[in-house]
Design a protein that fits this description.
The chain is mainly alpha-helical and 246 residues long. Strands 1-3-2 form a three-stranded antiparallel β-sheet. The protein is elongated, with a radius of gyration of 20 Å. The chain has ten helices and three strands. It starts with 19 loop residues before the first helix and ends in an 8-residue tail after the last helix.
């Protein structure tokens, strides 16, 4: 029987903040099989980074992560190497692994591409959506407002992603869906720290977008989505600066 993870100091022998601090304060998320273990560990660590349980600049200790996930250190090491290749983690000689600290330029490039893709997606969705689709959009909108009212930031981010993903699905363009899927996880990473300040404004914009899609007004839907995603990009640049963990 697996022993529970005990609370541990959040600073290691070198004095650096380790993964144990935020991890010990929440319920352990034991990974499940039968998917290949290295893939499951990779997905688990990526989500911990996206939802900022593991914060930008934070030192990652293999032993701590392995204990938290209930696995050996080998799949954690493999996952960290893959995350480093994909830009989520920085591996520093003689120092170890750290969650990547995104630059404004990186965010600007990705969110700019997102604006182009999402605006086209909204335009296509307006020509495809039927009454049941519009009903589902309003349901997703309500989920976002409910999460916002409960100050459930993880829920807000999930609802935001789900609503945008459904609009992409409605576009009927599989190539577009694939391209948006490539940036979705990083968009969620950038959106998490601004989900609260964007708050009601973002969901009001979502409501305007749904109304345009329901009216089958492709031009207006595209314009609203363009403004919406550009305001998200602006909000990211106006957020308080993120400092590396020390």
């Amino acid at each position: 029987m697996t022993q529970p993870v005990s609370p541990l100091p959040d600073r290691g022998p070198t004095g650096r903040r380790t993964a144990k601090g935020p991890l010990s304060g929440s319920a352990a998320r034991r990974v499940e099989r039968p998917a290949p273990l290295r893939q499951v560990v990779y997905e688990a660590l990526a989500e911990l980074i996206v939802n900022r349980t593991l914060e930008p600049g934070q030192h990652l200790v293999e032993a701590d992560l392995a204990e938290y996930l209930g696995v050996s250190r080998q799949p954690v090491r493999e996952a960290l190497q893959r995350l480093q290749t994909e830009g989520w983690v920085d591996l520093r000689p003689a120092q170890g692994a750290f969650v990547h600290l995104p630059t404004d330029e990186e965010a600007d490039h990705l969110l700019g591409v997102r604006t182009v893709l999402e605006a086209y997606s909204a335009r296509l969705a307006a020509g495809q959506a039927g009454p049941d689709d519009v009903k589902r959009l309003w349901e997703l909108h309500k989920e976002g407002l409910d999460a916002l009212d409960a100050d459930d930031i993880e829920g807000v981010v999930a609802a935001n992603s789900a609503l945008h993903a459904f609009i992409t699905e409605l576009s009927g363009n599989s190539v577009l869906a694939e391209m948006i899927g490539l940036v979705d996880r990083r968009v969620r990473w950038y959106y998490t720290p601004i989900a609260r300040p964007r708050g009601q404004d973002a969901w009001h914009e979502h409501a305007q977008l749904i109304e345009a899609i329901a009216a089958k007004d492709a031009v207006v839907a595209e314009e609203i989505m363009t403004r919406h995603t550009e305001r998200t990009r602006q909000a990211f640049h106006e957020r308080p600066p993120e400092e590396p963990q020390s």
